[in-house]
Every structure is written in structure tokens, then in C-alpha cells.
Amino acid sequence: MSYDLLIRGGTVVDGTGAPARTADVAVNDGLIVEVGRVDGRARRTIDADGLTVTPGFVDIHTHFDGQATWDPHLTPSSWHGVTTAIMGNCGIGFAPVHHDRHDFLIELMEGVEDIPGSALAEGINWQWESFGEYLDALERMPRAVDVGTQIPQAALRAYVMGDRALDAPTADDLAAMSRAVTDSLHAGALGMSFGRTAGHRSASGQPVPGTYSEEDELAALMAAMAKAGTGVLQVVPAGVGGEMGGDQRHSIDAEVEWICRLGQQFGIPLTFLAMVNEQDPHDWQRWFADVRTANAAGANVRPQVASRAFGMLMGHQSRMNPFRHRPSYRALMDLPLEKRVVLLRDPELRARILAEPPDAGDGLSADRLNRHTFKRVYPLGDLLDYEPSADNSIAAIAERECRDPWEVTYDTLLGAEGREFLLFPLLNYAGNDYHHLHDMMSDPVSLQGLGDAGAHCGIVCDASMTTYLMSYWVRDRTRGPRIPLETAVHRLTGDPAAFYGLGDRGVLAPGRRADINLIDLENLGLHYPELVEDLPAGAGRLIQRSDGYVETLVRGQTIVDHGELTDNRPGGLVRGARPAAAA
């Protein structure tokens, strides 16, 4: 036999959860044709001895809705093994849209997901109105990785209801939205998303359309999905992130109740975001129990969980700097980082900034730190400690050194030539460790996601959660149990692909797509986050690179080679569910 590509002698972790084994992987025409002991020749042979061979990662929770129209690689995700990215999450996105609503949708994305509106306005070339036309525009662009997207409820409401998008829909509105859902699913949408947390607001402070939708609307849209016979529903429940601001008009318990009940009624695959809060850290156990009961009765509901804390990185490269509302610091914010750091080392300026009270800030601000919250703020450090212990908090350091926490914060942020960050976990860090998160991830009812790739780019870079799961949870964790390698790979590949009906990928088996990661697992790890200004209009974002991905391939073509992007464009648009090809 002759093959296009032959990967020889790697440790194959096939994405099913089966034990790792030494095997060869043969590829022809972008598809896997053999896995095992393979005889024959190939146009290209890769010696994978010592490497872990996995399917490409399927990231189901990204916000590349705008970036996908200008960036073929979807960095930083492609640096972290992702070969399929699913957008249109949290009820927001850019289709369907009337021409006079472009700015409205940009304001929603900027406010909810912290993506610079200037970059979106400059970068998006609006070539669509309907959702199907948006898919056509995505499909026309050559790209390295695959993208698929969901129908965002906020955009749908704005498209159908116009200026009334925040009001209750009429019967005619519901009928029009239901028709649009059906048309969009038939055009190739992978599902739909609802965003219901009051903490999500547009850049102008308005609620996201759909935040307070009543059950008749939710049921009508779910019925349209059920009738179409395809698609996943993704939900941000009301109350999620409530401790970060916004009133909680519904409890998450009530949200899980209707999710399970309507999920059982309509039978559509449904995933909702589940995170641990400090006040009621055991609530997730009740939600998971409700989900298992509903699934036993015919529902297909999966709580979606992250692989690390949800919060922010504070520092001189972050939009959230603890001193940004102090006049003497604010006067320096437009200076290049290097020059700013030189000035901040001056003892007189240091004393002046520390003595100044902050000006009135906007909403929740990192300036609102106090002696209680300093107990939950930690230096990220050279080792990128995303699971720091309580004795490493700013408060603990200050107590040991008999210093004021603000002084410790100031001096810490000047570390690494001013590139040090402070980690401020807001959710998923009850008890100052990840024991709850480990249990959530280990429960097979949960679904891995919530990396928010492309979003919150002024305060965090969580697109790297895939690499974090494969390195920290599989290899490095010492503060509690780890995640088995086979389980971690399954959660990043075969499991999410199957849930979204993408049977052509996520598993290394004959007939599946040759989306493959070759990983040096021993050396897999994260770089320090850094600020770059590579978005349209010169807007900045935090990115995080990685080590250890020897190659990432899409349809058998290398798109990332030892961390460097290639010119190959084997990716495309994922239109609807895809069964596995015949072996």
C-alpha cells in the first residue's frame, strides 16, 4: 500500500477513552485509513516514537464569530491543538443581521465578551444578512482550522424584532424567529445558544436580548429545533456569574429545572454552563443529580465545565490593573510598557501612587480590592500557578512580611520586567483549590468546554485550557487527584465531537478525518501570557503560546509545526451534523 502520510510508532490515544497503545496511523486523501501495525510506503513518514498521537481537539465554546472572518488560523487556539472551533455561544454573534444593526451586535460582543469593538468594526466585512449567508461568507474564506457556528438568540431577536429586541415577543415574532431557526439549521447551523445571565451587558450597559425570555419563547425555539431534527442548544443560565455584578432574577436551580424539563420534552442535545461559586460551592452536585434524573427519563443534557478557574489576570498588560483609577498611574497608561516600568520603579512615584485614593470607577473594578479579596489574589509566577494555595495569596504574603497588601501588589506587578500578572479567580475556586472542579470534570455527565477562546482578551487568555488540561491535570498536579491521559483526550476530542453530531472527527479510526496532534507530552506546557496588538485597528489582546505540540494536522496537512503557523489551508466550514465516513 501507498499512503499520503504515515505516522509511525507513536503512543496513540484515540479519543474513545480506550487505553493508549503503540500504533501507526496511515492517511490518504485527508482521512485515516489504518490504525495499528501498518506496512507500506508513504509520500511523507513521521517518526512518532516518544510522541503522543491524539485526535485534533474540538473546542465547543469559542467566541471567534468576528475573528473567523479575518484570521484563518484562529490564534491562539491553533497553538493549543484545536482543529475544530464552534462559535455562536452565549446567545451572541453576528447573524442574522439587518444592515442597520451591525453596531448593535458589535456592542453586544464588546460588552459581553470583552472583544474590542474597534477591531470588530474594522475587521468584519459584512457580506451577509441571513444566517445562511453568514455561513456562505465563512465558507468562502480559506482557513487552516474548521469552524462551525450556532444561532445566537440575541442576534435573532434583533433581526426579527428590531427596536423591540428587549421586549416580550408577540405571537408573530415567535413564528418569525421559529422559521429563522429552522432555515438556519437547514443551512448548516450546529445549533442555537441562549444567554440568560444578568451579568452579561452590552458595551452601553443594556441587557442582552433574550436575558429575560419567558418559557413560551424558549419552548417555541426549542420546538423549532426539535422539528428540524438537528442541532445542540447551549445555555448560559440566569445567575451564572452573579457575584460579579448584575441582579439575579432567577436562581440557577430554577434554570436547571426548565433545562431538564424542556430538554426531556423536546429531546434535543442541551448543554449549560456550570461553575462553582464560593458562597454555595456544593450547588453543582444538585444540578448534576437533576441532570442524571432527566437523562434517565430521555433527556440529553450535559453540564459544561472548564478546566481551571474563571476570573481575570491583573497587571500592567491587562485591562484590569489594580492602580488604573489612581491619577498618577493613569497618567502613565499610554506609555510603552518598558518606559512605564522604569518610571514605576521610582520611589517617589511609588509612594505617591500608593497614597492616592482611586477615582470613582466603572462597575466592578480591580481597584475594589480589600483585605478580604486580597486573600483570593495570587501572583501567577514563573511556574504559571493556576491552582495557588492560600499561603501564596497577596494577603498571606503581606502578613508574613508585615507589609500593606497594596505595597505587595505594587511590587509584585513590577516582577518579570513588569510582565507579572495577578490571578484573581472568581468562580471554580471555592476552598482555594480545584477539588470541586476535579469532581465535576471526572463526572461523565459533564462536557468539557468553557474556554471562551477569542473572548475576554483584555483580561485573560483561556483558549489555552486545552493545553492546561493535557499538561497540568494529566501530568503536573500535586494538590489532588489527576485526570487520566485517556480521559483527558476523550473529553477534548471524541466526546464533544459526538455530542455535536460531528461523527467524522474526534477519534483516530479508519474513515475519520485526519485531524491529528503529535504531542511531546513530557515537554507540553504554557508560555507566559503576553499583550500583542495584532487585532484589526491595532487593538490589543492577551495571547498565550505553548510548547510541546510537535505538529497539528488538519485533514493530514500540517497547520502548526513546532509552534509556528504554516501556509496550509485544509480547514473549512462545518455545516450541520456529519456522520462518520465508511471505513
UniProtKB/TrEMBL annotation:
Keyword Disulfide bond: no
UniProt keyword annotations, A-Z: Hydrolase
Gene Ontology cellular component list: cytosol
InterPro entries named in the record: Amidohydro_3, Metal-dep_hydrolase_composite, Metal_Hydrolase, Metallo-dep_Hydrolases_sf
Family matches, as SUPFAM superfamilies: Composite domain of metallo-dependent hydrolases, Metallo-dependent hydrolases
GO molecular-function term, one example from the UniProt record: hydrolase activity, acting on carbon-nitrogen (but not peptide) bonds, in cyclic amides
Domain Amidohydrolase: 44-560
A Pfam entry, by short name: Amidohydro_3
Superkingdom as given in the UniProt entry: Bacteria
Protein name, as recorded: Amidohydrolase
Lineage, opening ranks: Bacteria, Bacillati, Actinomycetota, Actinomycetes, Mycobacteriales
